[in-house]
């Protein structure tokens, strides 16, 4: 099972095709392992990849703006580039990580995704319009709330439809009010600070090597909106641990950190590429057929990158890169 983690966006489909091209004769059938204090490294050929062809990928990465990249197969590093320890703001990845955190609390019954923004007390500087009051938490997580309240990200705010123009659940709009309000809702319903939940629920159990609670930031967006941006700061090698956790469906070395099946729920397509808005974003996602699930970008359809024996890896690449980079998106 292949996971790919990068800091700073590159063309994910191009990377995926490069990785497919780098596949050599099948390597050994290695059992999945989970890194302890450090990652295990193996020669690419042992995992079915070509060192020579991965060197070509390295040369290509040097022409891009990528600061670091890690490729792991079944929990073992076969390729690395740049400074894997460098901690940086992971932008929209914060949303996917929040979705991972939601799982345990939904499973325990502490979070009910059908509750409305009114029931959750998510009122903002400007009160909800009547049409907005019945938007649900699920619709916030899928960016289909129909609430187009301004946020500090003026670029996205300016691209949003007029308030009241779309009924909840009927229209996808990538804009930060849904995402930030989902963070506020998480804290209200769990009674926990997002970063405390991140530290205890994910960072410590999977042994993140570079996680620092003090570096995580809530950026106040008043007087525009009451709901802050919950900015997260990770290293590439720590994002790879999150990717491995997703590949393992929430199980880390026998310890269940997300409910079984939650991975599939949040990465199940809700909005196909053809329905993504704003239009400029839609045009970029349709190049690679990126649709949206629950705070996760998901390919609209499976793309097999090469003929057998690469298919298993290709199906995995389908969603693994989205753990670290979305194809386009602002914070």
Entry summary:
By secondary structure, the protein is α+β, with helices and mostly antiparallel strands.
What does this protein structure show overall?
The protein is α+β, with helices and mostly antiparallel strands and 331 residues long. Helices cover 32% and strands 13% of the residues. The longest helix has 16 residues, at 93-108. The chain is globular, with a radius of gyration of 20 Å.
Mean pLDDT over all positions: 86
What can be said about the biggest beta sheet?
Answer: 4 strands, mixed
Order of helices and strands: EHEHEEEHHHHHEEEHEEHHEEH
Report strand %: 5-15%
Outline, from the CA principal axes? globular
User: Which secondary-structure class do the elements indicate?
Assistant: alpha+beta
The count of β-strands is 12
- Tell me the radius of gyration: 20 Å
Number of helices: 11
Helix content: 25-40%
* Low-confidence residue ranges: 304-331
Strands in their spatial order, largest beta sheet: 1-3-4-2
C-alpha end-to-end distance: 29 Å
Primary descriptors:
11 helices; 331 residues; four-stranded mixed sheet; 32% helix; globular
Give the helix/strand layout.
Elements: E1 2-7, H1 12-21, E2 40-41, H2 51-61, E3 68-73, E4 76-82, E5 87-89, H3 93-108, H4 137-141, H5 154-159, H6 176-190, H7 194-203, E6 217-219, E7 229-231, E8 233-235, H8 236-247, E9 251-252, E10 255-256, H9 262-266, H10 279-287, E11 290-292, E12 297-299, H11 311-317
Parallel strand pairs: 2-4
Antiparallel strand pairs: 1-3, 3-4, 5-8, 6-7, 9-10, 11-12
Helix pairs in contact: 3-6
């Amino acid at each position: 099972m292949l996971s790919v983690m990068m800091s700073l966006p590159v063309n994910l489909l191009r990377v995926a095709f490069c990785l497919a091209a780098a596949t050599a004769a099948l390597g050994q059938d290695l059992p999945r392992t989970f890194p302890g204090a450090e990652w295990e490294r193996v020669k690419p050929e042992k995992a079915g990849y070509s060192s020579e062809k991965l060197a070509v990928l390295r040369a290509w990465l040097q022409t891009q703006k990528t600061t670091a990249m890690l490729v792991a197969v079944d929990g073992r590093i076969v390729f690395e580039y740049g400074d894997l320890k460098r901690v940086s703001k992971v932008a929209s990845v914060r949303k996917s990580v929040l979705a991972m955190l939601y799982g345990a609390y939904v499973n325990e019954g502490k979070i009910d995704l059908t509750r409305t923004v009114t029931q959750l007390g998510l009122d903002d500087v400007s009160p909800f319009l009547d049409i907005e009051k019945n938007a649900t938490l699920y619709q916030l997580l899928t960016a289909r709330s129909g609430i187009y309240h301004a946020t500090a990200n003026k670029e996205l705010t300016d691209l949003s439809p007029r308030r009241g123009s779309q009924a909840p659940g009927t229209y996808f709009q990538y804009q930060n009010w849904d995402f930030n309000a989902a963070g506020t809702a998480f804290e209200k319903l769990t009674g926990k600070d997002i970063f405390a939940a991140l530290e205890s629920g994910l960072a410590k159990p999977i042994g993140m090597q570079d996680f620092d609670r003090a570096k995580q930031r809530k950026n106040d967006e008043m007087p525009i909106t009451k709901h802050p941006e919950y900015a997260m700061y990770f290293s590439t090698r720590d994002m790879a641990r999150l990717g491995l956790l997703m590949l393992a469906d929430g199980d880390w070395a026998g310890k269940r950190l997300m409910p079984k099946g939650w991975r599939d729920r949040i990465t199940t397509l809700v909005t196909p590429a053809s329905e993504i808005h704003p239009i400029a974003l839609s045009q970029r996602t349709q190049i690679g057929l990126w649709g949206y699930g629950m705070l996760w970008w998901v390919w609209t359809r499976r793309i097999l990158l090469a003929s057998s024996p690469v298919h298993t890896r290709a199906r995995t690449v389908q969603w693994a890169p989205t753990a670290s980079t979305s194809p386009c998106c602002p914070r």
